[in-house]
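Second attempt. The first submission of Putative transcriptional regulator had a stray character pasted in from the spreadsheet, which I only caught after the job came back as garbage. Lesson logged: always re-copy from the clean sequence file. Corrected sequence (129 aa) follows.
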Amino acid sequence: MYSEIIIAMDKFKEIVVREEEAKQCPNSYVLALTDTMNVVSGKWKLPIIASLLKGKTRFKELLENIDRITPRMLSKELKELEMNSIIIRHVYDNTPVLIKYELTESGKSLVDLIDVMINWGLTHRSNVL
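This time the job returned cleanly.
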């Protein structure tokens, strides 16, 4: 428990330092937020990322895991996520060719963001309803 408090305090210190840096240069803060939104915005990117948290996944499995996404849209979103270094596309030399997708370290770091968004959404929903 004590080590958890120290870790939490260290994270808080990092956040405070970043906030102080942002006050000195608010433009960098806005750019960082814009970059984040460019990577995760859209209807399908977060569900794709959440599906890939389980590990390497095939295209067809992603289609089955994400309701109402079309193959064309999934392909488009996967290409964008790969371009932004959020996922890696693995091609295996089998017959037929096997392709799997996996989160990069940068993609895996979005777990905290997703958790915060889920908690906010649950709180917001309970306040509104």
